[in-house]
Specification:
This protein is mostly beta strands. The strands form three sheets. Strands 2-1-7-6-5-4-3 form a seven-stranded antiparallel sheet. A four-stranded antiparallel sheet has the order 8-15-13-10, with no helix packed on it. Strands 12-11-9-14 form a four-stranded antiparallel sheet, with no helix packed on it. A hairpin with a 3-residue loop joins strand 1 and strand 2.
């Protein structure tokens, strides 16, 4: 697996960095969570304001400007590409088809209140019937497929409010 990292800043700007760049990063910790950085003969003062280790998200203040940075290593990217999440909480807001198939039954309607583990729909895929249970309690915001529809992998099926 490669040693490249994907850094997303303020949910918009994406930068790629490799392990050798990170290892050769010229930063000195001056106080707890505060750093003096030298990059291309420019001096920067940085402070880690907030960190969420599980989500790999950090709020960093550099020379008075605040940035939110998300760091993804090769394993994080692979897991995301496979359609899984790491350290995810139970706050799922959308149900997507994990594979192509046919909707055999839609058990909910828009506006319906559901409890965790209530059956939402049945998807037939590879000659098997797969029941999709609600991952959390909530209210159905929208339904993007109906009984008899053929769906593709990753297609949005149900959204929660």
């Amino acid at each position: 697996m490669d040693k490249n990292y994907k850094l997303t800043v303020n949910s918009a700007n994406v930068f790629n960095s490799n392990a050798s760049e990170i290892e050769n990063f010229d930063a000195v910790e001056t106080k707890t969570s505060q750093f003096h950085i030298l990059k291309d003969s420019q001096r920067y003062t940085a402070e880690i304001v907030r960190k969420d280790f599980l989500a790999k998200t950090y709020t960093v203040k550099v020379n008075g400007n605040t940035y939110t940075v998300n760091i993804a290593n090769p394993l994080d990217r692979l897991i995301k590409d496979m359609g899984f999440t790491v350290g995810a909480s139970k706050q799922v807001n959308a149900i997507k088809a994990p594979m192509p198939g046919l909707i055999l039954e839609m058990s909910v309607t828009v506006g319906q209140e559901v409890k965790e583990n209530d059956c939402l729909l049945i998807l037939e895929a590879m000659k098997m019937e797969n029941s999709f249970l609600s991952p959390r309690a909530g209210i159905i915001k929208s339904i993007s497929a109906s009984k008899g529809d053929a769906v593709e992998k990753g297609q949005l099926l149900i959204e929660f409010e």
